[in-house]
Amino acid sequence: MSAIEIAERYFAAWRANDFDLHTAAAPACPVANWTHVENGRITRVRVAFDPRPLQPPD
């Protein structure tokens, strides 16, 4: 699989998915993720989001 085919597959999957964190405890919150690809396979995913809406009130 060429690098272009890998990128096309990755971005097709990325566009098809909703990148919000959904829980029963709080409204959906946006997330950002970084993926590392080796030999056409995702080997690592790093996710960042603001956890404040998920914390209990003071």
TrEMBL record:
Domain of life, source organism: Bacteria
Gene3D superfamilies, sorted: 3.10.450.50
Protein name, per record: Nuclear transport factor 2 family protein
